[in-house]
From TrEMBL:
<dbReference type="InterPro" id="IPR000524">
    <property type="entry name" value="Tscrpt_reg_HTH_GntR"/>
</dbReference>
<dbReference type="Pfam" id="PF07702">
    <property type="entry name" value="UTRA"/>
</dbReference>
<keyword id="KW-0238">DNA-binding</keyword>
<feature type="domain" description="HTH gntR-type">
    <location>
        <begin position="3"/>
        <end position="71"/>
    </location>
</feature>
<protein>
    <recommendedName>
        <fullName>Trehalose operon repressor</fullName>
    </recommendedName>
</protein>
<dbReference type="Pfam" id="PF00392">
    <property type="entry name" value="GntR"/>
</dbReference>
<keyword id="KW-0805">Transcription regulation</keyword>
<dbReference type="InterPro" id="IPR036388">
    <property type="entry name" value="WH-like_DNA-bd_sf"/>
</dbReference>
<dbReference type="InterPro" id="IPR012770">
    <property type="entry name" value="TreR"/>
</dbReference>
<dbReference type="InterPro" id="IPR036390">
    <property type="entry name" value="WH_DNA-bd_sf"/>
</dbReference>
<dbReference type="InterPro" id="IPR011663">
    <property type="entry name" value="UTRA"/>
</dbReference>
<dbReference type="InterPro" id="IPR050679">
    <property type="entry name" value="Bact_HTH_transcr_reg"/>
</dbReference>
<keyword id="KW-0804">Transcription</keyword>
<dbReference type="InterPro" id="IPR028978">
    <property type="entry name" value="Chorismate_lyase_/UTRA_dom_sf"/>
</dbReference>
């Protein structure tokens, strides 16, 4: 019964935050006030707050309380090279990845030219859908040169390709060139993403290089526009 109680409290508060009934930056009532409001013990409230914190809904500040985070949009750094797994850690169980496609192919002439491939070189083609709060809102499409990545599995793609490349293969991922455009959704976008009512998507193209300046990856990250802020820090020289 205690498990059901704290889960119900967690789901109620999480729902209010997602719907905007509790706005980002607001301070939740104290543990005592929540306990009175939900007719629950402080221990039950603490369990619910702990889960809210782990899943990225609130941030607990010592001596201040629980500050509500803005979950309606997700910050993606423009200049950084960060994996989705690293970005989604603060979301806890709210974020899921589905591998829709994983195969080794001979790329088209356009990609051959972009990636400076040899005549018969193969690449891994990967399509992954990112689901957040039950909505499919990102389609990540990757091409990885087989010469640098001899083997790849669905499990690796579902977890973190960059962790595998750096931790298991010992590759040093150094820098990327990025392009950001606004486009009409493709048939593939509409097949994989929840785009009802949306007529544009944000497309981030990455040309990713190793420390010897060899390009090894081309990525298109296709985002539903209502959920993302692309952020950077700039300093005038």
């Amino acid at each position: 019964m205690k498990y059901n109680k704290f889960m119900k409290i967690y789901e109620d508060i999480a729902s209010q935050i997602r719907d905007g009934r509790i706005e980002g930056g607001a301070l939740l009532p104290s543990e005592n006030e929540l306990a009175d409001s939900y007719s629950a013990s402080r221990e039950t409230i603490r369990k619910a707050l702990k889960m809210l914190s782990e899943d990225g809904y609130i941030h607990k500040v010592q001596g201040k309380g629980s500050i509500v985070l803005d979950v309606t949009k997700f910050d993606f750094p423009i200049s950084g090279l960060v994996s989705f797994k690293e970005l989604s850690k603060k979301m806890g169980q709210r974020a899921k990845t589905y591998v829709e496609e994983l195969e080794k192919i001979k790329p088209s002439y356009d990609y051959n030219d972009k990636m400076k491939l040899g005549k018969d070189e193969l690449v891994w083609k990967i399509s992954r859908v990112r689901e957040i709060d039950g909505e499919r809102i990102i389609l990540d499409k990757d091409l990885l040169i087989e010469r640098y990545v001899p083997s790849l599995t669905k499990e690796i793609c579902q977890d973190s390709i960059y962790e595998y490349l750096e931790g298991e293969l010992g590759l040093t991922i150094s820098f990327a060139k990025k392009e950001i455009t606004i486009e009409e959704p493709s048939m593939e976008d509409r097949r994989y993403l929840d785009l009802e009512g949306f007529h544009n998507i944000v497309v981030v193209k990455n040309y990713v290089y190793l420390d010897d300046a060899s390009m090894f990856q081309y990525t298109e990250s296709r985002h539903r526009p209502d959920k993302f802020r692309f952020v950077d820090f700039a300093r005038r020289k």
